């Protein structure tokens, strides 16, 4: 199929798609007329049932925690897949970076790194209280480490992120979630039952397994994004031009 | 016998996969193989125990101990019925055989093969057992992600990347369609549990329900490789390693059709699935299109894995016919067919893997005459062909007969019979033709097409001189199991019980709300040995004639060489299989509009 025919058929199909989509959306309940009781029940009961002030995290890591286990493993698998598909060492690499950055950049980066690290840890540990949690905190922690690549050079970044320990931490985070779920079997409760003490609403150490799972997810997401960053940079940055 | 927790078949392989992936730089190869194989074996045991336990009533399991409050479901639930547990068992069995087959193969994709296979297995188990619509989607995504990566395991050449890329793009389009469908359903019901949705929707049959069904079904039919959603499948199969092909063809594709039936029977049981509904007619139409398309292309291909991939498409279409008819007898036939096809196709893929291992090629012209010393492999290959052509004792014949007799004295009876004959004859003929050329060296080498030149990097460095038992045994076992419904008494009754329970919407919903349930089983239908023998024999003879026609075409007078056209360019079908992901997405859109339009417009 050449380009012109592809576009013609595509636009024809897209028109049909638009019709079907329009018919579906037009028949939806009007804006603001929420049908199910689920959202309202969750919003009022999760504070009492789970001592969590962030309802989204209560749903993510407790009420529907099994979905999130699947999502976490989707990230885990995706990173394995990216590492597998981009493993060819003999690719021609376009960008080469040489020389270190100036003192001002390095100083600024170090300061921002420290600030971002604290912010990321705060995000990861306070998910049960305020918006945030393991996924968000982990992404902040991992992207903070990109500052190493900006301020130093690729070799330093690679030395840190390609270490087998990072892979092991990634797996530990992923397995930790499943292990917390399995630990409920010790109390003959179903998988992922929140058996830990719930603590006082508003405390950092509250909400039982929600906080523990959030920490595991934070670890996994941090390590996974570090591995992703390394794999992508390895793909485009040539090492020979480095150092200067 | 204790009943294991239904969470274990998902949690255990995930933990093992994380362990293997995290420590892959420290683990020896044999240790990693041992852990992976032991995990698959343990999972097989767990799923078998669940299958036994689900026999008398469905097992309902609430994650996080969140029971429903009144009619509102709070958490995520599994409802394990015999069909779900049976498909999970099949996933574990095929994964275990795949691990045995690839025991200590040198190129294993930087030791990521075992963890990815374990994640794939866990996702298939979860997919088969869940009662939650969003959870079904999560496992669909996990299954797809693991499958994309496994497909590109051999990245020495650009072809595997291309196949994995097309697969990823089309299946992601499917994921978007499913997600849109879930959003529509949630907007009207405020629920994600399929039983609760089915309870709330009741017999509601308006534009919104139709649109939601169109979105959800198109998404899962992309996974089921139903025409015109099927283009990704041959590209993915021709580059994936053998054990991965076994899982793709044997189970992953069929799980797409399973999801369509599970969703529609639980959520839309009283609207879309009524007898003579537009939905059934649409599935019949798409299934027939798939049977013909897959069958024609199967015979036109000369890359062994692509031949088998198109045969999977054709058989998938035939199975969709069973789903479309949808009476308990037809679903019994569908289950029998699914099981027997999974085993026969697994056996054929393992046999193709033996050829790749011994002779370093997957291309029919290049393998011409070179398979003559491999006698046992030839026997397995031909038995696989006979199984695909649905000759008794192979289970495909029973399944075919049950589906056909479900339409007895009905206008579509002849059509369905013809479709099953077509898929049996065409796929059988393609396998026989390859066998005659490769193992017996008959006729000429046959035409070479572009796809046949994509050669796979073999597992070992050079031509091997013997076939290890770890490769031969799984192939032989699979072919033998394909005939299991014939020699294990009670198989038919089990399948009938499973099918009956699978279709009982009110009982499924009642179990979720912990209401007492009584199963009453009508007597099981029997497949008639005489008619299966006759149908099978006609299909096998036609397949042999067609194969001989293609192989010996040079010996025929010029006017009788028509078979070369069937083997040849097959305009325009081959042209459409362009390998361009943009084309495939366009066809997915066309398929969605076709399905949605039929649902809207048909009476």
Molecular structure report:
The complex is a heterodimer of chains A (about 240) and B (about 600). With about 240 residues, chain A is mainly α. Chain A is built from 9 helices and no strands. Chain A has one domain. In chain A, α3 crosses α9 and α4 runs antiparallel to α8. The model of chain A has no long low-confidence stretch (mean pLDDT about 85). Chain B has about 600 residues and is an all-alpha fold. Chain B has a domain of about 400 residues. Chain B contains 25 helices and 2 strands. A two-stranded antiparallel sheet of chain B has the order 1-2. In chain B, α10 runs antiparallel to α13, α13 packs antiparallel against α16 and α13 crosses α20. The model of chain B has no long low-confidence stretch (mean pLDDT about 90). The chains are: A mainly alpha (about 240), B mainly alpha (about 600). Chains A and B meet through α1, α2, α4 and α8 of A and α1, α4, α5, α6 and α8 of B.
SSE arrangement:
The complex is a heterodimer of chains A (244) and B (603).
Chain A: H1 3-26, H2 38-50, H3 55-63, H4 65-85, H5 103-125, H6 134-151, H7 154-161, H8 164-183, H9 209-236
Chain B: H1 8-22, H2 29-53, E1 59-62, E2 77-80, H3 82-101, H4 113-129, H5 133-151, H6 158-189, H7 194-201, H8 207-223, H9 232-239, H10 242-267, H11 278-300, H12 304-325, H13 328-359, H14 364-367, H15 375-388, H16 395-406, H17 413-439, H18 469-482, H19 484-487, H20 491-503, H21 505-512, H22 529-551, H23 563-567, H24 573-576, H25 581-601
Antiparallel strand pairs in B: 1-2
């Amino acid at each position: 199929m050449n380009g012109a025919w592809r576009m013609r058929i595509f636009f024809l199909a897209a028109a049909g798609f638009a019709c079907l989509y329009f018919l579906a959306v037009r028949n939806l309940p009007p804006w603001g007329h929420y049908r199910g009781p689920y959202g309202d029940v969750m919003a009022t009961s999760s504070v009492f049932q789970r001592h969590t002030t962030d309802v989204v995290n209560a749903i993510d890591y407790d009420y529907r925690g099994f979905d999130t286990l699947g999502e976490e493993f989707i990230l885990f698998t995706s990173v394995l897949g990216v590492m597998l598909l981009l493993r060819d060492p003999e690719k021609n690499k376009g960008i080469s970076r040489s020389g270190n950055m100036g003192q001002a950049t390095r100083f600024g980066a170090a300061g921002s790194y420290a600030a971002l690290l604290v912010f990321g840890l705060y995000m990861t540990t306070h998910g049960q209280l305020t918006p945030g949690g393991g996924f968000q905190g982990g992404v902040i922690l991992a992207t903070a480490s990109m500052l190493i690549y900006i301020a130093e050079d690729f070799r330093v970044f690679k030395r840190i992120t390609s270490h087998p320990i990072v892979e092991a931490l990634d797996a530990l985070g992923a397995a930790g979630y499943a292990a917390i779920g399995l630990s409920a079997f010790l109390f003959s409760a179903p998988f992922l039952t929140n058996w830990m003490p719930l603590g006082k609403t508003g405390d950092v150490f509250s909400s039982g397994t929600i906080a523990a799972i959030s920490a595991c997810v934070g670890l996994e997401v941090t390590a996974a994004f570090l591995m992703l960053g390394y794999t992508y940079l390895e793909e485009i940055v040539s090492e020979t031009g480095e150092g200067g | 016998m204790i009943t294991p927790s239904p969470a274990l078949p998902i949690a255990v392989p995930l933990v093992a996969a994380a362990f293997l992936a995290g420590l892959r730089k420290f683990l020896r190869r044999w240790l990693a193989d041992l852990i992976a194989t032991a995990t698959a074996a343990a999972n097989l045991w767990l799923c078998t125990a669940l299958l036994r336990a689900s026999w008398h009533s469905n097992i309902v399991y609430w994650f996080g101990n969140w029971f429903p409050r009144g009619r509102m479901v709070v958490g995520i639930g599994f409802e394990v019925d015999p069909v779900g547990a049976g498909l999970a068992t099949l996933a574990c069995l095929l994964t275990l055989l795949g691990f045995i087959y690839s025991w200590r193969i040198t190129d294993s994709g930087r030791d990521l093969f075992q963890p990815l296979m374990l994640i794939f297995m866990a996702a298939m188990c979860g997919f088969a057992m869940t009662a939650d619509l969003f959870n079904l989607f999560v496992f669909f995504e996990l299954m797809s992600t693991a499958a994309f990566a496994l497909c590109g395991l051999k990245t020495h050449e650009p072809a595997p990347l291309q196949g994995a890329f097309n697969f990823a793009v089309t299946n992601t389009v499917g994921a978007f369609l499913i997600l849109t469908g879930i959003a529509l359903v949630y907007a009207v019901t405020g629920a994600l549990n399929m039983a609760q949705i089915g309870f709330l929707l009741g017999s509601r049959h308006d534009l919104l329900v139709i649109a939601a069904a169109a979105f959800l079904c198109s998404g899962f039919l992309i996974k089921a490789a139903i025409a015109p959603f099927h283009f990704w499948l041959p590209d993915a199969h021709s580059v994936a390693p053998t054990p991965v092909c076994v899982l793709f063809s044997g189970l992953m594709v069929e799980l797409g059709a399973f999801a369509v039936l599970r969703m529609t029977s639980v959520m839309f049981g009283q609207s879309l699935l009524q007898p003579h509904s537009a939905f059934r007619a649409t599935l019949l139409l798409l299934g027939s299109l798939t049977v013909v398309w897959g069958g024609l292309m199967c015979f036109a291909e000369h890359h062994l894995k692509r031949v088998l991939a198109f045969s999977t498409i054709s058989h998938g279409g035939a199975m969709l016919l069973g789903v479309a008819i949808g009476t308990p007898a037809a679903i019994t036939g569908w289950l029998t067919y699914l099981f027997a096809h999974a085993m026969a196709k697994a056996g054929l893929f393992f046999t193709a893997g033996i050829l790749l291992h011994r002779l370093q090629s997957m291309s029919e012209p290049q393998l011409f005459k070179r398979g003559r010393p491999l006698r046992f492999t030839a026997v397995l290959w031909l038995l696989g062909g006979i199984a695909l052509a649905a000759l008794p004792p192979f289970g495909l014949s029973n399944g075919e007969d049950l589906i056909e007799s479900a339409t007895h004295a009905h206008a579509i009876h002849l059509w369905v019979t013809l479709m099953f004959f077509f898929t049996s004859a065409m796929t059988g003929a393609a396998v026989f033709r390859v066998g005659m050329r490769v193992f017996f060296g008959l006729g000429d080498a046959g035409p070479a097409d572009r796809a046949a030149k994509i050669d796979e990097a073999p597992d070992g460095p050079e031509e091997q001189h013997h076939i290890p038992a770890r490769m031969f045994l799984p192939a032989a076992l699979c072919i033998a199991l394909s005939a299991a419904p014939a020699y294990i008494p009670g198989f038919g009754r089990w399948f009938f019980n499973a099918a009956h329970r699978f279709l009982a919407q009110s009982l499924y919903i009642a179990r979720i709300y912990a209401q007492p349930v009584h199963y009453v089983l009508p007597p099981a239908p029997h497949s008639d040995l005489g008619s299966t023998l006759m149908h099978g024999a006609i299909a096998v003879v036609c397949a042999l004639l067609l194969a001989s026609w293609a192989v010996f075409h040079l010996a025929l007078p010029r006017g009788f060489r028509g078979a070369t056209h069937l083997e040849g360019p097959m305009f325009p079908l081959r042209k459409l299989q362009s390998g361009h992901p943009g084309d495939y997405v366009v066809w997915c859109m066309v398929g969605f509009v076709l399905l949605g339009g039929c649902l809207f417009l048909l009476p």
